[in-house]
Design a protein that fits this description.
Layout (H helix, E strand, L loop, with lengths): L9 E4 L8 H16 L5 H10 L1 H9 L8 H15 L7 H8 L11 H9 L3 E6 L3 H11 L5 E4 L10 H10 L7 E5 L2 H9 L3 E4 L22 E2 L3 H8 L6
Parallel strand pairs: 1-2, 1-4, 2-3, 4-5, 5-6
Helix pairs in contact: 1-2, 6-10
């Protein structure tokens, strides 16, 4: 196992899917809403549809079709479309707002909190997410995620994979890009970070989209580290005495 890489000072993490189980969390929230309002809905399909609207909505911002819009606002726009599609018409504005905030209450993967706590002993650890700051802070408090700081695309006015997000994170941390490593379960995110000079760690989350749609977990030589989970990442990056 390689020891901690010389010069590596900070780890920044993709959040949705990498740190937290968005799909399982949204399904739980939907089922709870369904029980309260007696809704017979395919909540896994609803969760998948909500997430499927994420990239197209961001693309409208990145192209200039929409002005800068937070993920909270984009999620709410997608939610309104989904409510029509699933013929849910009995929710109040307050109920819609609360359901939209389900994204603030996402639960971490089983290894996430312990792995982050170990990695924090040797590195600055921060988010680098397209989620807005308020969302990420609420999520951290809800799930007790031990970030040193919260970095968001909102701070840069650019969503990943725009270079401004990756380079902006290094700049705000006072580091050169090569002193920062992006940790993510999404290879396109990692390749964009690598193109900006960041180091990269691939941590697969094969169950991100559920047990019936396992995500490919093949390792890539293009990445600096391929780890099974955050605990394995800590074992690979930290000197043994810090475990």
């Amino acid at each position: 196992m390689p020891a901690r890489k010389p010069g590596l000072r900070a780890l920044v993490f993709d959040v949705f899917g990498t740190v937290v189980d968005w799909r399982g969390s949204i399904i739980r929230e939907g089922r709870a809403l369904g029980r309260r309002r007696k809704l017979e809905i395919d909540w896994p399909a609803f969760a998948d549809g909500w997430r499927a609207g994420y990239r197209p909505a961001m693309a409208r911002v990145r192209s200039g079709e929409l002005p800068w819009t937070t993920i909270d606002a984009l999620h709410r726009m997608i939610l309104e479309d989904l409510l029509r599609r699933f013929r849910i018409d009995r929710l109040s504005g307050a109920e819609k707002d609360d359901f939209n905030r389900a994204w603030h209450r996402l639960r971490p993967w089983p290894d996430a909190r312990r792995g982050l706590t170990r990695l924090k002993r040797g590195f600055t650890i921060a988010t680098l997410s397209n989620g807005n700051v308020a969302l990420l802070v609420d999520m951290a408090k809800h799930s007790r995620l031990p970030w040193d700081c919260v970095l968001s695309a909102e701070l840069f006015g650019h969503y990943k994979p725009d270079p401004e997000a990756y380079l902006g994170a290094a700049r705000l941390l006072g580091l050169a890009p090569g002193q920062v490593m992006l940790v993510a379960a999404h290879k396109d995110d990692l390749l964009a970070a690598k193109a900006c000079g960041l180091r990269t760690a691939f941590v697969p989350r094969p169950l991100e989209f559920g047990p019936d749609a396992r995500v490919a977990v093949r390792t890539e030589r293009a990445f600096d580290v391929n780890a099974r989970d955050f605990l394995d990442l800590a074992a690979r990056l930290l000197p043994r005495r810090t475990h």
